[in-house]
């Protein structure tokens, strides 16, 4: 099973929100879909779900157009809160599971498992509005997973979660991926995308500016980082030719460089300043690539 978008365009009047977007997300793939606020991510998700119609292009799931008939195969976690605040957790999740085609008996059994896994079983009879933002996010996560979808769309899934609960959700997402589910998600946390995703796209003003496997995207960037830890003044290194940017820290600095030859020059210059505690050449981070492609103002 695969999700395919072919030259998909969405316009609102004279404004083009998504501009000829093409991508394929294969079965068992975790796909990162990145962009600044307003780049067109949520609009794309809504077109995939059939909530919005594309002006041009085609979207298919397993070779067919997504419709109400395929809704039981799809799970969606929206970025905004989509829960009924006055309903109790248990009755709400069972209701939502039934909308996805589950029987009440199956929904109740699955719900018990998920509430225990997410460590919120004691909230089953609480109203959603009585829960913290983090626990409300857990409820939304369960709503998107409870019917065991084959296509899972997650819009900022880690929003509002503390580090312990982020790890809990990551484990659940990885388990779904390993069972063969197709997963596409957006996140402003580049480290989460690097950790979880085999493939990714970055879109900017509706246009796809980067696409491919994480490894290929990093290789094609053409730059590396040099990390130096030193207790001495490293400011003379900023002006070395081939250094494209510098990020200072308490421990020293990270230099983005155009070639490994520049790394040798940095090492020589750093040693002239005084002893260094750490020197390493690193591949570019996804954060580096995102900032260069989209712009610092949006990072």
Describe the protein in words:
With 299 residues, the protein is of the alpha/beta class. It contains 9 helices and 13 strands. The protein has helices at residues 41-48, 89-99, 104-117, 133-145, 163-178, 190-196, 214-221, 260-273, 286-294; strands at residues 3-12, 15-25, 30-34, 56-61, 74-77, 151-155, 182-186, 199-204, 207-213, 224-230, 243-248, 252-257, 276-282. Helix 2 (89-99) packs across helix 3 (104-117). It is globular. The model has no long low-confidence stretch (mean pLDDT 90).
Characteristics:
about 300 residues, alpha/beta, Rossmann fold, Alpha-Beta Plaits, four-stranded antiparallel sheet, globular
Structural class: alpha/beta
Strand order of the largest sheet: 5-6-7-3-8-9
What sort of overall outline do the alpha carbons produce when their principal axes are compared? globular
Number of domains: 2
pLDDT < 50 runs, ≥5 residues:
none
CATH superfamily of the largest domain: P-loop containing nucleotide triphosphate hydrolases
Helix content: 25-40%
Ends distance = 34 Å
* CATH class assignment of the largest domain: Alpha Beta
Strand % is: 25-35%
What's the number of helices? Answer: 9
Report the count of strand segments: 13
Q: How is the CATH topology of the largest domain named?
A: Rossmann fold
Output mean pLDDT. 90
The radius of gyration computed from the alpha-carbon positions, rounded to a whole number of angstroms, is 23 Å
Secondary-structure element string: EEEHEEHHHEHEHEEHEEEHEH
Largest sheet: 6 strands, mixed
């Amino acid at each position: 099973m695969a999700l395919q978008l072919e030259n998909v365009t969405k316009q609102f009047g004279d404004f083009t929100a998504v501009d000829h977007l093409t991508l394929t997300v294969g079965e068992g793939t975790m796909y990162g879909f990145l962009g600044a606020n307003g780049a067109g991510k949520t609009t794309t998700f809504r077109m995939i779900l059939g909530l919005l119609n594309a002006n041009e292009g085609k979207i298919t799931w397993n070779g067919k157009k997504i419709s109400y008939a395929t809704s039981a195969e799809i799970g969606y976690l929206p970025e905004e809160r989509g829960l009924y605040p006055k309903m109790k957790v248990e009755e709400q999740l069972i209701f939502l599971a039934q909308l996805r085609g589950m029987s009440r008996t199956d929904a109740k059994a699955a719900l018990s498992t998920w509430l225990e896994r997410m460590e919120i079983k004691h909230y089953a009879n609480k109203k959603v509005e009585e829960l913290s933002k983090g626990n409300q996010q857990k409820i939304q996560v369960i709503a998107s997973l409870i019917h065991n979808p084959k296509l899972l769309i997650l819009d900022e899934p880690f929003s509002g979660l503390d580090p312990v609960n982020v790890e809990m959700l990551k484990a659940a997402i990885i388990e779904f991926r390993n069972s063969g589910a197709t997963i596409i998600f957006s996140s402003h946390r580049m480290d989460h995308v690097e950790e979880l995703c085999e493939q990714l796209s970055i879109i900017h003003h509706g246009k796809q500016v980067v696409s491919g496997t994480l490894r290929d995207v990093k290789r094609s960037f053409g730059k590396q980082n040099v990390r130096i830890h030193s207790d001495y003044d490293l400011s003379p290194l900023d002006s070395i030719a081939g250094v494209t940017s510098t990020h200072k820290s308490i421990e020293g600095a990270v230099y983005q460089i155009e070639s490994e030859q520049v790394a040798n020059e940095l090492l020589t210059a750093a040693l002239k300043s005084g002893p260094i505690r750490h020197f390493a050449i690193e591949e570019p981070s996804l954060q580096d690539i995102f900032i260069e492609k989209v712009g610092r103002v949006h990072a």
